[in-house]
Please model this.
Amino acid sequence: MDLQPREQRYAALNLLHQPVWVFDIDLRRVHWANTAALQVWNAGSLAELCARDLGADMSPSVARRLAQYQSDFISGDVSFNEQWTLYPGGKPVSLTVRLSGHRLEDGRMGMFNEGRVQAAEQPESLRSVEALLHTAVMITLYGEHGQPLYRNPAARASVRRLDETLAERIVDPRAHAALQATLAETGLATQTLAVHTVEGQHWHEISARRCSDAVTGQAALLVSEVDVSAIKRTEAQAQYMALHDALTGLPNRSHIMQRFEMVMGRLREAGHEAALVFIDLDRFKDVNDTLGHGAGDTLLVEVAQRLRGAVRASDLVARLGGDEFLILMVAPDIRSEIERVRLRLMRAVAEPVHLLGREIHVTASIGVALFPHDGSDVQTLLRNADLAMYSAKEGGRNALAYYRAGMADAVESRTALEAELRLAFDLRQFEVHYQPIVEATTGRIQGAEALVRWRHPQRGLVAPDVFIPLCESTGLIRRLGALVFETAAHQQAAWARAGHGLRISVNLSARQLRSAELLPDLKQALKRSGADPRQLQLEITESMLLGQDDSLLSLFQALQDLHLGLALDDFGTGYSNLAYLQRFPIDTLKIDKTFIQGLDTNRALAELIVAMAQLMRLRVVAEGVETPEQLAWVRAQGIEFCQGYLFARPLPVAEFEALLAAR
Ligand code: C2E
Ligand code: CA
Ligand code: CA
Model:
């Protein structure tokens, strides 16, 4: 290596006592060194030092730092101070090195190093100097006017501009002012703040301490920063998840409870009232069961959005889980506020939802508990709103009920009823009554609908609307359904033997239709009773036909093979989808009593349905005929069969037989 030109160029520097050397960043070699530097580097000669490959065991972070320095030198007249530890001859020597840019003879950017050997160092501080260079903690020393005096490599890699002040680095000027205020007061501050970095905005935990610059002795600020963005993110996420429902994004139960606890004190002061509104979707389980959970979820998201839109922005809408929602409303006169929005809430749920190419209708049962009237703490209010919701459901769903004292007793009696229901099977307390189905023109009894009753020792005759839902929720429905069908089959056979050819219709619940036991149960009953399956019919409702086409089709095929008839019950109350009549082997259509009794304003729809059914050669039965006027309308429509109190109520077997004998 020819060192002559360099010798001449740098000769004067040999006079310095402080070590000075030039570093070739690209080659990772010392380019030139003065005598003092040769000592520090523990080199026998300049040629020997220049021959050392310093890149050989250079850590990647040091290599990155060098590259960074090089580009900094090229872009501006800058210099940095670093604490270095060199190990000439295996003994640590600590230096403060001032680094600046320096063009080599061939024009490439090199680095000019001026070292200042420090007094004998404690191993502790040696380590801390090393740590300073290699740590991920960003350390900056700011001067009196906020200008950066020193940045460690981590800090340099993080800033957008090397000359950026602390004020420029902190995103929120108020946060910076607060930090300065604390510093002015105590000389020390630690805060988690949003800062600008080359990678965008990050969260840093900043520790700042007032000190004096070791070089100039002037006031300075030592700032260390740790990136806590990841922690912040998971923290924020965890907090969000803890307070929100993942599916709908609405606040969840604990959110609303916390919020209520918070506002309660203020409510009392302001003399305001509040309400907890408990909303439960009716028959949501049917949607889930027939269309699948994905469709159920979509429905919930839709309903959540609509509920949110139905109330004021200041009201809190939460999802409790499942198909339950809760709204916290605050107003000076809460009752009139509830009355103002009740229709909007009902509609938010009742408007059809389009799912899988179908229109789905659900309704809601809503319970309301008022603060402070129905409870002064959130637990009590929630329980009472729940009870009120329950009573809305019991009252036939799609309704809103306010909490009343005594509602808890009703639930208790329901729980008692549930326990008694299990015993009712063994005690043979179920009876099947028969309501005649007659020819509209002649009044001749053509068949009957089997309707189950529970003869309760204390309560008397309990109606199916009370205990069928209980049977469904407890899984007893399969047993009950099998019992009713078998009883009806025996009755059909008995009446046939007595010379009465009557067609008996038996109701099926949704849960039975999906049970794998249904077919075996039916077959067994037919076999044991010797009934004529052509004179037996099963009644299902439209809502049971949603979804699951293939499995239902094969079930209906099996029913056809058994020669059992199929009737569509309560037609006109739900979707009134005539397509079902084509898709499924249905032979009888039962027009719901709301049409017959003129309760539904849309009688034109009823007339259309009847006309279609007749075109399709379906048997049509008018349900709930109570008056001669209704019968006249039924006849005018050309409806063939009637069922209703005008002819007879559901009757016990003996009374039914008396009626048969009388005609
Ligand atoms: P549904 O299938 O619609 O049965 C007709 C209901 O209308 C019966 O009530 C009947 O008493 C009533 N009804 C008949 N004629 C008139 C009338 O002229 N006016 C009025 N207002 N009502 C009339 P019931 O017996 O209380 O049955 C209620 C519901 O319970 C039935 O409605 C049916 O869905 C269910 N149900 C009854 N028995 C069974 C059963 O064995 N299994 C299943 N799964 N459900 C049953
Ligand atoms: Ca029925
Ligand atoms: Ca019906």
Observations:
- The longest strand covers residues 200-212.
- The mean pLDDT is 87.
- The CA atoms of residues 68 and 157 lie 8 Å apart.
